[in-house]
């Protein structure tokens, strides 16, 4: 007995064979898994992803969506940070005043700064919790070691992003925090002194230090973290078809 669903493939193929259909649909009807895979591979944006992903790996219980939460918080940081950049000048003479003006005179300034600050705090917690969750699931084991290293790198970049933004208000708390942080960098074996001078822009904390931390915070580190995040997501999708924990009991 034929049903309405049985007629849909033939109706779709008829539409594709018409002149209008040929102008709209550039690939044949994907009636079989092989056809769907071929269409996936031929797409410029989809060919870097696997055709299928295990359903278990996209459920809430697998990651608690901590990776998604971290990515959303990164987007919140970028959006709120761009707004804040319009009202801030990285100069010791005006940095602190700009922050005060932002909080008291700029429309939604206090709100946007709070969004930026709390998004930064929550992103550090979410990335750390995501790594802890993945460590519990054994994501550091073969054959996913490379993606685990990328995840560790993202955690370090998140911490650096938070630290570089700490100096920007240019108050006493920020000044001494950066002084202590750069002093710690000096103890890195072999390259510690060079790293400290590169961060400070000289021998002591100065206007050059503020400018360098500002550039790191708004340009260098966000660009790196977005690039590494894209590779991280791509590798997660690619590694999803590797051997999974079939024998792992349900939680």
Question: Which key terms come to mind for this protein?
Answer:
mainly alpha; 251 residues; Cytochrome Bc1 Complex, Chain C
Question: What is shown here, in short?
Answer:
This protein is 68% helix and 0% strand.
What does this structure look like?
- This protein has 251 residues and is an all-alpha fold.
- It has one domain (58-239): Cytochrome Bc1 Complex, Chain C (Up-down Bundle).
- The protein is 68% helix and 0% strand.
- Helix 5 (66-85) packs antiparallel against helix 7 (109-136), helix 6 crosses helix 7 and helix 7 packs antiparallel against helix 8 (145-166).
- The protein is elongated.
- It starts with a helix and ends in a 12-residue tail after the last helix.
- Residues 1-7 and 245-251 have low confidence and may be disordered.
